[in-house]
Fold Protein kinase domain-containing protein.
Amino acid sequence: MLFLINNVNVSVSQPSPTSNFEVAEVKQRKKIGPGLGVLIGGVVGVLAVVILYIFILSRRRKTPIAPVDKDVWRHQKLPAWKPALSALSKESEILKVSIEEVYAATNNLVESNFIGEGTAGKVYRGVLSNNQINVAIKKITDDGFGDTFFREIKSLLHMRHPNLVALVGYCENKSECFLIYELCPNGNLSEWLYGMHFSLLGFSSIFEQQTSFAQLKSSINSQKTGKDKILSWTQRLEIAIGSARGLWFLHTFPDGCIVHRDVKPTNILLGTNFEAKLSDFGLSKVMNLGESCVSSEVRGTFGYVDPEYQTNHKVSAANDIYSFGVVLLQILSGRKVIDMNMKKPMPLDKIAKSVMKKGGMIEFADPNLNGEYPIEAFRLVFELSLLCIGDKRKRPSIQQVTVKLEEALSISMRMKASITPSHTPDCIVFSGY
């Protein structure tokens, strides 16, 4: 057939005087006339093209087409964490939410629903339509979003504790990943120490009950920004205790110690009654039972990372103790990790150590507390925070930290109870404890 097709092609495109086909064609043309000969030549050309096309098509059909192995394709194309996530979701009751539901819940991630930004991505307030619950939805945006996304789900999947933010569900597709948490309506500790946005508490009731415009307006007017809204001394202690209990739970987890690696005020969320909830487990590291440390690249936030960890790259529970010590210093002083208001900006831990040497501990206290705290309790927490950021070998465990903070709260409550209006100077109001 191939020879015949080539023959036809040759006869059409390159006529040869010696060809039998052409001699017959010339004789026929003399009989039937030149017009009909042209017509026949055209038909032959078209037939040649059609035959060639059929031949090529038949050759292609003879080549077997291997069936697509969907499983092989999936495992080749998808990163390793996706099959692992699929297995995890089957083992638990975690809610998998569609991408359409996420965008509907957040009104297409509208800016007015933006409530903060963590290490791995932006967080938006939303309402899930299936059960009408208020949630916080984090869109993972960092470069290694897949690993961060899976690590956080794996960390929170089987963990339930009053002082850890609860994971409600997740959403993932080819290009986007979302984590869905319980909503903590009072924001995070950082906002209350250094200036805050509107608390979400006044707005969450819109989705829970009928709220009149007058009530909403009153609620908005009652919200104050900046440092008009101050955490009292006892509130600060309770938040510190709640955070410590959350870390205690992580460090003594039955399956192995979990090191958070990013303890800081923005990752301490505040619930309806200002109960502390640790959040953002994207950098957490799980150690096997019996391990006291593991090697790892340095992760964390500048100012909160243990200097020894930066040097030896050894992850341990002591790293979280250091970070928590810095947080305690911030709770006491209301200062950021680097005080840029000083002529020579200094890290907060160095300021605290300098204050301790000079014996001017009270100067370290947040002016917004207005002196409304027992000196004994303040000293106890201040000295505890210095132990946390000190030599790794002398640092207390998180259990010991919790006990000391509870002792400071007990002292504060006794002092508060002993103060009566008749013994209270007019210039000092202790009701803010």
Notes: Residues 1-14, 61-77, 197-227, 420-433 have pLDDT under 50 and may be disordered.
